[in-house]
Predict the 3D structure of the following.
Amino acid sequence: MGRGLHDGDIAVASVKDTGRAPAPGNPGAGGADSAPQLSALGWARWVWRVLTSMRTALILLFLLAVGAIPGSMLPQTSVSQEQVRNFYLDYPELAPWLDRFYLFDVYSSPWYAAIYLLLFVSLTGCVVPRAFAHYRAMRARPPKTPHNLDRMPYSARFTSDAAPEAALAEARALLKGYRTDTGTESVAAEKGYLRETGNVVFHLALLVLLLALAAGAFFGYRGNMLVVEGDGFANTLPAYDSFEPGLAVNDGELEPFSFTLDDMDVRFIEEGNFGGQAERYAARLTYREAPEAPEKEHLLEVNHPLSADGVQVYLLGHGYAPEFRVTNADGDVVFDQPVPFLPREETTFASDGVVKVPDAGDEQLGFTAVFLPSAAESAEGELVSDFPGARNPVVTLEGHKGDLGMDSGQSQSVYQLYTENMEPIGESPELSPGDTWELPDGSGAITFTGYRDFASLQVNSDPARLPALLAASAAVLGLLATLFVRPRRVWVRARPGEDGRTVVELAGLSKTEGAGSTAEFHALATRLRDRLREGPATDTGTKE
Amino acid sequence: MTHAFAASAAADGTLASVSDGLVIAMIVAYAVALFLFAIEAAYGRRRPLKANRLVPAAEVSAPAAGAAGDDFVARSADDGMTVNVRHAEPEARASQHAVGHVALAVTVAGCLLNLGQIVTRGIAADRWPWGNMFEFVVAISLCGVVAFLYAAYRYQARYLGLFVLIPVVLLLGIGAKWLYTETGPVIPALDSYWIAIHVSAAIVASGAFMVAGSATVTYLIAHRTELKRAAGETVTGIAGKLPSSELLDRVAHRFILFAFPLWTFAVIAGAIWADEAWGRYWGWDPKEVWSFITWTVYAAYLHARATAGWRGSRAAWIALAGFACLLFNFFGVNYLFSGLHSYA
């Protein structure tokens, strides 16, 4: 936006200049009437022409935008399956209908794919021929000097004592940065090819970006897991809590990196209006890119992922994993490990979890539990957590005994206790670290021995990340060139006039909207005139 | 396990309250300027704009001004050179009044207060001062006003003052009344140098889009005035004193040309940040979807403007749709949908 506004403007270069596609049949004749006589080839041509027309591209662009809207308003399976399930529960009649139109998977739906594929076919059909045309234009000579330069948007005429050849030589020297072609009595010059280059690069880069997106979804994978402080992780399928592979991913041959979560550092703002907001969380890892590779360290933070063997590991969040030791009726330790609890809300980190003890003896034991990092009594006398940090960790348990149902063959969630075949045995008092609850009917005891942090992690493999980034960068550069480079042509003609003096004409044509280059053309004409006036005078001066 | 607790929120109390005082001061300044600009628009005289940088304007006496329709031809025969310019610019006129200068000065003052507010808040919170919606609104206002001042200086576009300050005062009012958040630290996800890159680009682009939106609205009013005049009706008041629709169209286009690549960059920078923070560069988060929709609509505007039959008011409506998407992306998405971007 560097130039004065009132002297003209920059127009955007469009890939498509024509407003509408000609109707099938003879151009100009009643297209619709003659349509039935068209051959299949004629129809194909017509469809192609309509598809690659500017108007169609504009409409498709609009559809692309409008089609994206429902995906932002309705829950999407790709973003959160849980929200979709909740939507089904809230609107049991509407949801199946919406699903019929893929409205819970808008961005992978056939109709959305149809829009962007058509748009990209339209783009390709336009950009590729245009790229070739531009390549030819860049190798061709600037267009020949027209007969009547007066008709150009800018033209100037003056006379000079310099010889026509000298005038043209001077003009060529003046037209720096232009590509020039000298004829017998004129110079044709052109500049600003970068605009069309940028235009082609921008649109091709968009095509590459789409391919990179597709490739990433095809060859990449994503998985989530919780890792408790002190525990390790090896990149194999069973280590994940959830795993979404691309179609071309062999989940038996994932990149063989591994790591141990040494320490988790979580800080909360202690006081004030922002008290309870997380200030920082970071996980210290020791990792190996491959089993035989050397051990390295990494501080995993929210904006600082680990990159191992081309795969990224991200820290999504954290939580508490209380540790429990369970002894059975005979006094044998049958369970001793931390159990990750899921935070109910971020502000208090009151967390829910389930402890399953399958090897307790004749009857299996199960507990549903609540972990309160900073237990306090609310105004209503309820036990709540009033801070996310562990100021006063307390656990309360609800015990069950019977059959946990873990051998039934059906997959179970580790965060849910299936109590169909169990009977309740009562509730525990508030347990602080070290406290033990003796189970009521002598079936054993459970001790809340302490707690550890866990990290909620995501592993992401997208081999097309870099190509996507390069394509996006190329698109921005191309966009800048196509928006801000002004292509323009200049012609200078010099021939002997009737009075023996040389008549010099200069004309300029800007290919973009308005007369943005008029100032430049005028400056060129003025300078050429001044040079030709001075030049010969000093020449003759030195000769004499 | 280290559960170290930070002390209280590291906010400097004195500076934070200075910063809050400046919010009120700048809203008042902008409101006064708005009032003065309204006087200029309504009671000024329609006079030609100076310094048009119209090329041979200094040298060309324009005898053919107003000749043969739109094929305006200016000729000059200065110093032995005949110059011939077709399609030269018709003279640009706008309503001008002495209070306009005062209004501009008050706007500059408001702009400085605005800048001061952002700086003091940034220092008080010890971070980049655009971590929540309130701070975002204040920063967009600053960019919009700076863009307007640039236009006033460079393009003589003081006539836009009224139309730019209306959304600015509205936005700031909404910001101070409903979006206000106390100075404080941000959540860890926002603690990255990408906030300086991604959010700054989005803010500057939004400011330029806002000026473009104001110019577009002005364009549509001026266009309607011209149609009415062509139909023989008389138009009075502010609508009757606007500059030519063609000029306004060009100002709007200029700002969109500036903002569009910047918006593109902001979206891409956001994608890079998302890749670093959330583990994917594009995840169809509502904010991502709507910035993509905004991008698409402005792309359609740029194409429409270069397409015969779409130029003019049709393209202008597309630009307004783009601006509506931008606003929705800010207000609607943050309040209606749950997504990763809701930091309000």
